[in-house]
Records
---
Amino acid sequence: METYLSIMELAKYLDVSEKTVRKWVLNREIPYPKIKKVIRFRLSEIEHWIDAIGKSTHANNDEGAKYDRH
């Protein structure tokens, strides 16, 4: 069964502020479905997103790219 997180739960999981999560949603930087007009995050998609960011950051490291979780 898929695990879904709220904005608050995701912020805790990623150790970032709720404001940061909301910014990512607003800028469409993070995957999320709306369930009955409520934003939720599939844990499996978030883990894949984190992996993709890590690979992208590592590949662009010579250009000074960083992933700042705060």
Note: The CA atoms of residues 21 and 27 lie 10 Å apart.
---
Amino acid sequence: MNAKAKRWLWPFLIELVVYALLVLGYFFLVLHFLGDWLYHLFEHDRRWYAAAALGLIVFQGIALEALTRGLLSLVKPREEEEE
């Protein structure tokens, strides 16, 4: 394995593990706190359920990306910042 691949392997593996843990935690938090509300929306008004689900997906993407980027900046600075 060349040096460039090794240099990118650790940040990738760290990001993969951190992101997986954050997604799993987010899933259980939403299930715990919003599960009944989402089920009620699903049963009674599918349009609002679809909008709420889309909103949760967008929020998850933005929040988890920001969290992952912040955590990775603590572990390893980005290449652009080093040059």
Note: The chain has a mean pLDDT of 84.
---
Amino acid sequence: MYSVEYLPSARVDILEAEIYLFEHSPPAADKFAEAIEKQTDLLAEHPMMYPLYKEDERFRLMPLPYEYLGFYRVDETAETLTVHRVIREMRDIPNIL
């Protein structure tokens, strides 16, 4: 099983997404938080399950609700998965990464 780490940038992204979603629909914010937790558990078992991001193949794409994507990297030697960012699909992702 891989360990999963979130960089501070990803933690800020998640917090901002949850605040935004909560302002519009508290149940949506709950669903988003639950999806993050579920994906973390799933990726710890299967870190390569999602595709590489075609624009920057250093990252893999983790789908999330409400058009958000998680961008993560896998270190097979250390058996660690690091989430770098959680970004809404409509944003300028290549420039953010």
Note: The beta strands are 3-6, 60-64, 68-75, 80-88.
